[in-house]
Specification:
The structure is a single chain. This protein is of the alpha+beta class and 509 residues long. The chain has helices at residues 18-27, 64-73, 77-83, 119-131, 164-171, 202-208, 284-292, 298-303, 351-368, 376-399, 412-428, 432-442, 454-462, 476-483; strands at 10-14, 33-37, 62-63, 87-91, 95-99, 102-103, 112-116, 136-139, 142-149, 154-161, 185-188, 191-194, 216-219, 224-231, 242-245, 256-263, 267-274, 307-308, 313-315, 320-323, 334-336, 342-343. Strands 5, 6, 14, 15, 16, 17, 18 and 19 form an eight-stranded mixed sheet that branches. A five-stranded parallel sheet has the order 8-2-1-12-21. Helix 1 runs parallel beside helix 9 (351-368) and helix 11 crosses helix 12 (432-442). It is an enzyme of class 1 (oxidoreductase). InterPro entries: FAD/NAD-bd_sf. GO terms for molecular function: oxidoreductase activity. Residues 498-509 have a biased composition (Acidic residues).
Length: 509
């Protein structure tokens, strides 16, 4: 048994990923001790890949709302990212985006931003700051086997510590087996935070102690990712825009997406994705061919002038999955954060921002009332659900419409909402105020309700103030890159390669 020597509250966080470390940062000012339990044998000391985070091989978007929240939790974290080579990309003028309603203009004044960086770099900078806090401890090679307590209160967790066999298995790149762990031990806590990601076992653990059954909603468009890193063409290593060609959910065909995000080390992180029936291959020679098949070939044209520096990684665990812990009547002393509560189709880039906004909400609740007080758990869970619910609506509002999507089919309200969203996108092609309001919502800086305000409704009724662009609005430097001779000719073979999936994330301690 691990007892608690400090009279101040002790928090146990399950999972040392981004959601877990942000939750630790949020709670650290209000507790005596935070113990982060992680199943990995070690967490990288540099911006290097984690064995249990294969989705890090794919492009990630850290929107302004998420970056703002992380900066508030960890002052100076933005400077850390930039010093390590990340880019602060202004929006809208730093983004070339072909919306379903047309090309967005880039001549408006910047109002928002995003951080262009690899997921490994973002996680590393956060982890380094959090683990440097004097009351935060990390314990690796720890497997959680269940919750301690009952349906009224969680008092800790049962855990098994990996022995020498477990360490050797981890060094060999294998998952440690059941027999590599020691006998179960109780780790006491005043608050347990589940940050174990999509593979969370909390719904089962709660039932095991007589807790509530948690309802789950799933919307799955069958999205599959294929990603690759490229060396940016000479002269484009800095001040390069994000290039994004999304699908149009109104088309009666699988949705195809292509995105370039400038990241550290003078590289582009390129992610291609397709919904069920239009999935990309893992074949390297087919990567750029797929990019040429999206709604506009701009991404493919740029890639033909850049040099790949990695193979192709694929990932297919992309269902939108919402576990309604906020409605379940959780026992005291237990909350769920990040993907363990709401996991989203990553094509919309909201996972990191939702985790950060949720952690900020958790900090607010911890500052108002003790963990043991009546209502802390329910209030904290509801507060963390609000940013997740906003991102959920943005994702499923599109994913429901793709062919073969699993989950409730679109009803009349869904169809009317989708029509209004498309009208807003159409208006945004020529109205700076609507661009700013949409970006407020997409970046999670403001709630979606602002899109129903009187000024927005009037602007949507009037439509765009400027004519539609007939192509992307590119700078002279961007046009010069496209004018260079391509390094490779377009590939014309059919997509018949055998795929190799890497979607094996097992981020559960």
């Amino acid at each position: 048994m691990t007892s608690r020597p400090s009279p101040l509250p002790r928090v146990v966080v399950l999972g040392g990923g981004l959601a877990g470390t942000l939750a630790a940062a949020a709670l650290a000012p209000h507790v005596g001790e935070i113990l982060i339990l992680e199943r990995d044998s070690a967490l990288p000391q540099t911006p290097a890949p984690r064995a249990r985070l294969p989705q890090a091989a794919h492009a990630h978007t850290l929107w302004a709302g998420g970056a703002d929240a992380m900066e508030e939790l960890l002052p100076g974290i933005t400077a850390d990212w930039l010093a390590a080579g990340a880019h602060r990309i202004p929006i809208p003028n730093g983004m070339v985006s072909f919306s379903p309603a047309g090309w967005y203009r880039r001549s408006w004044d910047p109002t928002h931003y995003l951080i262009g960086a690899g997921r490994d770099l973002i996680d590393w900078a956060v982890r380094r700051r959090v683990l440097g806090m004097p009351n935060v401890e990390l314990r690796t090679r720890t497997k959680i086997t269940g919750l301690a307590g009952d349906g009224a209160r969680v008092r800790g967790v049962y855990a098994e510590q990996a022995g020498q066999d477990g360490r050797q298995a981890a060094q060999d790149g294998q998952q440690a087996g059941q027999d590599a762990y020691g006998s179960p031990g109780l780790i006491e806590a005043d608050l347990v935070v589940d940050a174990t990601g999509r593979n969370s076992k909390s719904t089962r653990w709660l039932l095991d102690i007589g807790g509530p059954e948690v309802r789950e909603t799933v919307v799955d468009a069958g999205v599959r990712y294929a990603s690759r890193r490229y060396r940016a063409p000479e002269g484009t290593e800095t001040d390069w825009p994000v290039v994004h060609v999304p699908a149009d959910p109104r088309e009666a065909r699988p949705g195809l997406f292509a995105t370039i995000i400038p990241i550290e080390d003078g590289q582009w992180h390129v992610s291609l994705s397709g919904t069920r029936g239009g999935e990309p291959s893992s074949g390297e020679e087919l990567f750029e061919e797929f990019a040429r098949g999206v709604r506009h070939p701009l991404v493919a044209d740029l890639l033909a002038r850049a040099e790949p520096v990695s193979g192709v990684s694929t990932y297919a665990r992309t269902a939108n999955r919402r576990r309604h812990f906020e409605r379940a009547g959780l026992p005291k002393g237990f909350v769920v954060v990040g993907d363990a509560a709401t996991s989203l189709n990553p094509v919309y880039g909201h996972g990191m921002s939702v985790a950060a906004r949720g952690a900020l909400a958790l900090r607010g609740q911890a500052a108002r009332r003790p963990f043991a007080s009546a209502g802390f758990t329910s209030r904290a869970q509801r507060a963390m659900t609000r940013p997740a619910a906003a991102a959920w609506l943005l994702a499923v509002g599109q994913d429901r419409f793709y062919p073969g999507a699993i989950g409730r089919r679109p009803n009349l309200a869904d169809r009317l909402s989708a029509r209004y969203v498309h009208r807003l996108a159409h208006t945004a092609t020529g109205n700076a105020m609507i661009v700013e309001r949409i970006t407020d919502v997409v970046t999670l800086r403001k709630p979606a309700g602002i899109l129903a305000g009187p000024a927005v409704l009037l602007a949507a009724a009037l439509g765009p103030r400027k004519p539609l662009l007939d192509g992307p609005e590119l700078t002279a430097r961007e046009q010069e890159v496209l004018a260079r001779p391509p390094l490779r000719s377009p590939h014309t073979a059919s997509a018949t390669d055998t795929d190799t999936d890497t979607d094996t994330d097992t981020d559960t301690p």
